[in-house]
Amino acid sequence: MDKKEAIKQCMCRLCPTYIKCAEEIAFCISTTGKSKCIKKENGCLCPGCPVQDKMGFKHVYYCIRGNEKDQRAKK
Question: What number of other Cβ atoms are within 10 A of residue 62's Cβ?
Fold first, then answer.
């Protein structure tokens, strides 16, 4: 899935942890990475996100913990 399609399907803006900021969403995609604005975990919608499902991602809180690739590398 390319970045543009991921942004269209992304649920980040509906997430309780999301803070509106001048940055792109779809934090799970490797080109986005974690947010520079979001610092506190307040609930996560990643497990129900169509992007996560279609890409086969397994992690959560991409906005704070980093994209799927980064989180896999930490384990």
Answer: 28
Spans of the chain below 70 pLDDT: 75
* Report field, pTM of the whole predicted structure over 0.85: yes
Determine the residue type at 3: K
Contact 17, 41 (CB under 8 A): yes
pLDDT at residue 50, rounded to an integer: 97
The set of residues, in sequence order, having a beta carbon less than 8 Å from that of 7 and lying 6+ positions away, is: 24, 25, 26
For residues 11 and 75, what is the distance between their CA atoms, to the nearest angstrom?
Answer: 25
**Where in the chain are the domains?**
3-74
